Amino acid sequence: MNKKENILIIGAGLCGSLLALRLAQRGYNITMYESRPDLRTTDISAGKSINLALSDRGFKALRLVGMEEKAREICIPMSGRLIHDVQGNTFSSDYSGREGEYINSISRGDLNGILLTEAEKHENVSIHFNKRCTSVDFENSNAHFECAETKETFSVDATVIFGTDGAGSVLRKSYDLERKFPFSYSPNYLTHGYKELEIPSDTNGNHQLSKEHLHIWPRGEYMLIALPNMDGSFTVTLFLGREEGVYNFKSLSSEEKINAFFETQFPDALALVPNIAAEFANNPTGALGTVKCSPWYCQGKTLIMGDAAHAVVPFYGQGMNASFEDVTVFDAILNKHQGDWECVFKEFEKARKEDADAIGDLAEENYFEMRDHVTNPLFKEKRKVEMALEKNFPKEYFSKYSMVTFKEDIPYSVAMKKGRAQDTILLKMIANKEISTSGDMTKEVLAMILKKVQEETNGTEIKN
Asked: Which end of the chain is flanked by fewer CB atoms within 10 Å, N or C?
């Protein structure tokens, strides 16, 4: 493969900037176009993006490009969830029973910024902002753009084009609209949307809630979450039906209705959010959806990655981590097939499609867990059992959440299959009083659980 080949990347978000950096490190000439202004010099994120949870799969990718430590410097570790009920009472639920396992709250913009800056240190990288891609001729490896400032239109030829332009990917739309080859596209949008708010820091610049937790106010049909920021504030996100339910975004149409909603449903959060009605009215309502499609590539000329290929809802905290893992997997395949883009693209999709679909399904399932199941007594007991198993058998037992979040060597699809089986078995055993946290977690108990899991999966051994 000729390293002088020109690589065009559409979209300079998290996936695109990481991909650009890695390919630049490998010696390729990279040109990247982004429709938005440079986020390092312009505030473009307020009210428009959900806070991110960085975990092991993401760190593995950052380690690949030498950026793990820089990312850790802007992270806030969160050891578990802190659940808030309507009366203001709280209880915590750890993410893992093992020592040293936690997820990390990180600013999307700050992480994107350090990746762009690192990529630009390479002479073979050129990044252009305010240049919106309007269409892609994927057969001829040609993309068309419009400058947001001058309205000038222009085209760019490339050896290979990568579409890392998010859930609304223009390259993916070109696959769908041109219909020059069989293309399957199935978006699934939730009837719920989201809106961002903010809990500011106190007068001393400190967090007003525990910064060691991801805070959740579960209310069955809707919920509020809050993640800590480095400046002492929390980014608060309300997930609510767009038009259905007793409360929904459409019905909260006045200051009185907004205040009444928060006063009855989230009184302790309301006390920490000044000018709630103004923030609610001014911040946009975002959509929540899952994207599944195939194929991701056209011959050896174009490839979609990250959210462009497999956008997920944010309820497992894996959207960014999955996109970053794309780059890790792609890099390993490039090592094997350098010199044949079509072979690389084909093997990449084969390696990632099942796992991308799996994390999409898991993320949708976790929405119901977060907004409802976390307060269910049976679910709470299951989590306690899982934490005890992980504490007593740290190398033998991993909950579904742990496999997804902390075991980057376990594919998402395996974590989903094994994790679902474990959940089913534990819930049955707890309901039948075969196991509880009041009893000892012995090796015999572990062996019984794992045997039942194997039976649940029809005797198929699911390896970690």
From this structure: C
